[in-house]
Automatic annotation (TrEMBL):
Annotated family: Belongs to the UPF0309 family.
Protein name as annotated: UPF0309 protein ACFPQ9_44525
A UniProt-annotated Pfam family: SIS_2
InterPro entries in the cross-refs: RpiR-like_SIS (IPR035472), SIS_dom (IPR001347), SIS_dom_sf (IPR046348), SIS_GmhA/DiaA_subfam (IPR050099), UPF0309 (IPR022951)
Taxonomy of the source species: Bacteria, Bacillati, Actinomycetota, Actinomycetes, Kitasatosporales
Length: 251
């Protein structure tokens, strides 16, 4: 019998998933990073969207020290995070047909931009429609999802398709159906989700790839510095002045 604690088991599970995405998604990570770098080099803008807890990984790459200043959050009122009351409303909004199109119509997204869409299941109407509508605008789409859901669940979009079916690049987080890594005989439900850890790591790997790709082309990546280090605010102010027309979270 193993003497490992639940904490040990969770860390082992998370590390195992991180090793899988590092090894199995390396080509897709490179492709996604290159796509973002191509967009920046062509004067395009970058956006990220995630609903519910998937929004955590989207927010992690927006206005982030060490991250690309050009990454903007595409927000859907009531669907970003769990601050909406009741929290279950956010889950319900993900299943509403037509919502994504309305959001995109009032967003700054345009032909030549890139959009990262994060949805663990990839089955709800909101992320599927958002990917479809964004591509129709000429926007490149990077989807971050667990591909396993497409073979073990039913799509909630009228097309019967999933997020993964409408992306230029797909990053598979390898998260198992249900997003819970641990079980115990004494606990009736599986527990300890790892999707946030893995998805955030995947996206930071993509961002690192994008920054390095820009540098190899002789383009200085528009990176932000921490405001908590000396000179950080002055650095960021210069970045904002240079790229202000492509940064929307300051308006």
């Amino acid at each position: 019998m193993s003497d490992s604690t639940p904490a040990d088991q969770f860390f082992d599970a998370a590390i195992g998933l991180l090793q899988r995405v590092r090894d199995e998604e390396a080509e897709n990570i490179e492709a996604a990073g290159t796509l973002l770098a191509d967009t920046v080099a062509a004067d395009g803008r970058l956006f990220a969207f995630g609903a519910g807890h998937s929004s955590l990984a989207a927010q992690d790459i927006v206005y982030r020290a060490g991250g690309l200043a050009l990454m903007n959050l595409l927000a859907v009122p009531g669907a970003v995070g769990v601050d909406v009351m009741p929290a279950t409303l956010g889950s319900a909004l993900e299943r509403v047909d037509g919502l994504a199109s309305v959001v995109l119509d009032s967003s700054p997204l345009r032909d030549g931009d890139a959009l990262v869409i994060i949805s663990l299941s990839g089955r709800n109407a909101l992320p599927v429609e958002m990917a479809m509508s964004a591509r129709a605008l000429g926007v490149k789409v990077i989807g971050v999802t667990s591909v396993a859901y497409a073979s073990e669940t039913t799509s909630r979009h009228s097309s019967g398709t999933y997020l993964k079916d409408h992306c230029d690049v797909v990053l598979d987080s390898k998260i198992a159906i249900g997003d819970a890594e641990l079980t115990l005989d004494t606990i009736p439900a599986p527990f300890a989700p790892a999707s946030t850890v893995v998805t955030s790591a995947l996206l930071q790997a993509v961002m690192a790839t994008a920054a390095a790709s820009l540098a190899t082309r002789g383009i200085e990546p528009p990176l932000l510095r921490s405001g908590n280090v000396d000179g950080g605010h002055d650095w960021n102010r210069r970045v904002f002045e240079t790229y202000g027309d492509r940064i929307f979270y300051r308006q």
